[in-house]
Amino acid sequence: MRARVVLDRDYAIGEVDRRLFGGFAEHLGRHIYEGIYEPGHPLADEDGFRRDVIELVRGLGMTVMRYPGGNFVSGYNWEDGVGPRSERPRRLELAWRATEPNEFGANEFIQWCRKVGADPVIAVNLGTRGPEDARRLVEYCNHPSGTELSDWRRSHGFAEPHGVRLWCLGNEMDGPWQMGHKTATEYGRAACEAAKLMKWVDPEIELVACGSSGRFMPTFGAWEMEVLDHTFDHVEYLSIHTYLGNREDDSASFLAKPDAMDDFIEETVACCDAVAAKRRSAKRIMLSFDEWNVWYHSNDDPPHEPWSVAPHQLEDVYTAEDALCAGAMLISLLNHADRVKVACLAQVVNVIGAIMTEAGGPAWRQTIYHPFALASANAQGRALRAVVESPLYDCRERQGVPVLKLAAIDRGDGLTLLALNRDLAQPLDMTVDLRGFGPLAVGEWTVLRHDDLKATNTREYPDRVRPASHSGAAVDGAQLRATLPPASWNVIRLVCGIG
């Protein structure tokens, strides 16, 4: 099989915002407790954070971290998680039917973000609470001193303001599963008023309004239009979420599903721009894809014991094909770099996580860790518009699926290609016409694949699925030639030099 790609350095989609490589930490299952925070662990630091997890998160290169939810935030009182731990209340947590000890809260989250090198993103509760509680949290976090709330933060040991720049106005408020679920009108009004108060406290912050929880939602489209009618003048971003799975055990269809993510982005952008057009506004609402991942392995897990602390919940063990799907989702995000400015892998540790831990024991990389880390390290620069001529296939998911899914990033000092060969059995001969780049040479080619698509990384075999160096690609004049192995996700770095 053969595929041809045409790239021109002058034809760009947009600059890749570094916040595209974000993560998401929720009070759910063992993400916080036994995940990032385990004071009794042999590798715990002076603040109770696991050093091994910190190093693994640093390896992901995550630039922003969203917190504290997720469904959790819609019933959360942020005041419960600050101050002396001995005075913090234990609460029934209704979203996930657990007990929340509140040993970890906003200040601990900020500390942990600083250690892993990510900027904090905080969601406010617009489910069971409202605008006043939201603006109080902004004041607590961001106001320097001289008020009750800022001085309260200082009394907790944080003299300098946290300077949280990006805030989410609730979470998935279109979903009936959400505590405080609202209609689009109800949510739009609440979000508008919260946004006004929050920006009156700190005019430098940016805000994310809730878009649809998924493309499958019956209110999709109408929700976006109504919410933005209320919030357009006060927010910079609209959120969307997508989780993909392979419950049908159909690998070809599974690897086609990320293309629906492209559809979702483009349809949501159309809604945002329709609201702008109606207002005759030049403002463009950007997207925050602040939850995305593969999620389905744990759907059939038996229920946990209600009201336990940090139960084992949603601990998907990811396969080689899950890593290919996650890599394809990253390609979709990069190919919409002009409008998707923030994105968060959901989640990071244990709970549908890129990292798994054992209480008191080791931590290891799941298969989906690798495409994220490779993309974060290599996809910096301008995303280019690629003309792709590829063989097509039909599957249960959709018709006419290109075998080759590709993103191209102009780094300034060279070019990075992220390429997925979706054919499960055959290699793909790919040629790339390179226009306007000058002499290039192959610097490095990394391949992520495994002969067994169901292979997983485990405590005993943490590196069963991992990237490997590959050879055989070459630039001849202004054309790259490379044969992509079957069912493989590839990162090819071209560097300035003699082709």
* Gross geometry: globular
Q: Structural class of the helix and strand makeup? A: alpha/beta
Can you give the helix content as a percent range?
A: 10-25%
Number of domains: 2
Spatial sequence of strands, sheet with the most strands: 3-4-7-8-9-10-11-12
CATH superfamily of the largest domain: Glycosidases
Quick summary of this structure?
This protein has helices at 51-60, 106-116, 131-142, 148-155, 184-201, 222-231, 251-256, 258-278, 320-334, 369-378; strands at residues 2-8, 12-15, 22-24, 64-67, 91-93, 98-100, 119-124, 166-169, 206-210, 237-244, 286-294, 340-346, 355-357, 363-365, 382-384, 387-389, 392-393, 401-402, 404-410, 414-421, 428-435, 440-448, 468-469, 474-476, 479-484, 488-496. It is an alpha/beta fold and 499 residues long. It folds into two domains: 2-9 and 384-496, Immunoglobulin-like (Sandwich); 17-378, Alpha-Beta Barrel (TIM Barrel).
General description of the model:
- This protein has helices at residues 51-60, 106-116, 131-142, 148-155, 184-201, 222-231, 251-256, 258-278, 320-334, 369-378, and strands spanning 2-8, 12-15, 22-24, 64-67, 91-93, 98-100, 119-124, 166-169, 206-210, 237-244, 286-294, 340-346, 355-357, 363-365, 382-384, 387-389, 392-393, 401-402, 404-410, 414-421, 428-435, 440-448, 468-469, 474-476, 479-484, 488-496.
- It has 499 residues and is of the alpha/beta class.
- It has two domains: 2-9 and 384-496, Immunoglobulin-like (Sandwich); 17-378, TIM Barrel, CATH 3.20.20.80.
